[in-house]
């Protein structure tokens, strides 16, 4: 079965307008026709009632008597006929020119008094009994038929003219409505043709409102795409920058060994140490990139976690590795939250690594665990230099470091907090950064609390 071709604005509006106009026309024709038929039937019924009253007092045996009754009733004798079934079983047909009705075929319209007589037309038929005889009255409905013909002809002409004018109007209206849509579509096609280029905003018409809203949504989508494209460019630039230094160091030391290793063998261990250090740095960078890549595609099933126990266990293994003292403040009762235990361990370790790198060796690191209003908060505070306010909105971006010169005084690739933010998002939590008093930075993680598992 062939697929139906998509329709344009003009096709849809034209089809809808034509269907509406035809429906209205049919309703009008039916309404007026029914009204006209009912009116004519009521008139015929009144006429039959008048004839019935006359027949009750008069004896009709021939066509002359019938004409006299018609004239006495003030009715049109040319359009009113009668067939009489006499008491003796005979039939008298009082029709013009002596024509016998029995010779003609008749069809009765159900649920009405209307009868169609072949060769004669449409009649209102009524049966009356008077003076022992049965009278079958036939009142011609030529006025009704004529009016219906005129009505239908007039309505057909009116609908035809309305369709012609309406289609011209629809064509103009469709062109006016589709103009901003076509402009928007053209601009979107141009944007799609250059996906690697930062796109400008699409034109946003004020009317129709729906098209304007669509253009607004497209512009929001383009803005998100431009931001993603810019972040990808920045990511590639930052990754290249981070990899360039260790690669240059490794190649430089290899060249040094090749050029001077034979005459000065003492430089070989030192150069190998630099090569090992920089290769380890590259390894950490690549591992962090893999963590980010996996986190972007990860799907987790959050389970109730006893954060009090998980934090205590993590600190037990982490404290011997650093010089700073870690202080833990936690409620006496277990604190349960919804999340992934492995990811939470990675988040806490990354926050501790960050606090360790930026805190003086003689200053403590503080961890506070609390539950309030069905939310669990975990904060890690250090006593380092702190984070400027203008840098806090960028601190979770990939490769971003407050040290814009990217010196090697503090090790790191700028990916740790980006990984933390991604893992927190996967656990449907939030993470914020604020000042720690009297100095330093405080990272606060918020997760949804889980029901206690003690029951």
From TrEMBL:
Q: Which Pfam families does the record cross-reference, listed alphabetically?
A: HATPase_c (PF02518), HisKA (PF00512)
From what superkingdom does this record's organism come? Answer: Bacteria
Transmembrane residues, as ranges? Answer: 20-38, 148-170
User: Per its record, how is this protein called by name?
Assistant: histidine kinase
Give the UniProt keywords, A-Z.
Answer: Kinase, Membrane, Phosphoprotein, Transferase, Transmembrane, Transmembrane helix, Two-component regulatory system
Limits of the HAMP domain? 175-230
**Record organism:** Levilactobacillus tujiorum
Start and end of every Histidine kinase domain? 238-451
């Amino acid at each position: 079965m062939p697929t139906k071709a998509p329709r344009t604005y003009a096709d849809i509006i034209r089809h809808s307008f034509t269907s509406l106009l035809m429906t209205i026309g049919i309703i009008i024709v039916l309404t007026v026709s029914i009204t006209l038929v009912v009116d004519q039937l009521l008139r015929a019924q009144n006429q039959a009632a008048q004839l019935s009253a006359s027949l009750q007092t008069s004896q009709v045996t021939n066509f002359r008597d019938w004409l006299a009754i018609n004239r006495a009733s003030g009715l049109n004798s040319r359009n009113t006929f009668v067939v009489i079934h006499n008491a003796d079983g005979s039939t008298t047909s009082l029709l013009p020119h002596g024509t016998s009705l029995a010779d003609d075929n008749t069809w009765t319209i159900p649920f009405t008094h209307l009868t169609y007589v072949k060769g004669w037309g449409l009649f209102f038929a009524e049966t009356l009994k008077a003076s022992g005889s049965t009278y079958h009255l036939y009142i011609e409905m030529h006025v009704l038929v004529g009016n219906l013909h005129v009505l239908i002809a007039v309505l057909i002409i009116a609908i035809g003219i309305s369709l012609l004018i309406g289609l011209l109007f629809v064509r103009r209206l469709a062109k006016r409505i589709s103009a901003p849509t076509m402009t928007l579509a053209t601009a979107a096609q141009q944007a799609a043709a250059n996906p690697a280029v930062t796109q400008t905003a699409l034109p946003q018409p004020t009317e129709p409102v729906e098209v304007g809203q669509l253009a607004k949504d497209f512009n929001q989508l383009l803005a998100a795409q431009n931001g993603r494209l810019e972040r990808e460019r920045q990511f590639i630039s930052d990754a290249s920058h981070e990899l360039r230094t260790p690669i240059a160091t490794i190649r430089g030391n290899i060249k040094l060994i090749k050029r001077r290793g034979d005459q000065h063998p003492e430089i070989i261990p030192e150069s190998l140490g630099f090569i090992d250090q920089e290769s380890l740095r590259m390894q950490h960078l690549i591992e962090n990139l893999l963590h980010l890549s996996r986190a972007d595609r990860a799907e987790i099933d959050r389970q109730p976690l006893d954060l009090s126990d998980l934090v205590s266990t993590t600190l037990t293994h982490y404290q011997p590795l650093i010089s700073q003292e870690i202080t833990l403040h936690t409620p006496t009762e277990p604190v349960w939250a919804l999340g992934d235990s492995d990811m939470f361990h990675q988040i806490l370790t990354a926050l501790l690594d960050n606090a360790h790198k930026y805190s003086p060796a003689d200053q403590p690191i503080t961890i506070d665990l609390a539950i309030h209003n069905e939310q669990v908060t975990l904060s890690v505070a250090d006593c380092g230099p702190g984070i400027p306010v203008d840098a806090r909105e960028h601190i979770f971006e990939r490769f971003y470091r407050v040290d814009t010169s990217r010196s090697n005084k503090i090790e790191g690739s700028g990916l740790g907090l980006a990984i933390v933010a991604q893992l927190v998002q996967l656990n449907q939590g939030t993470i914020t950064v604020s000042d720690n008093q009297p100095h330093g930075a405080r990272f606060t993680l918020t997760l949804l609390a889980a029901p206690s598992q003690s029951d």
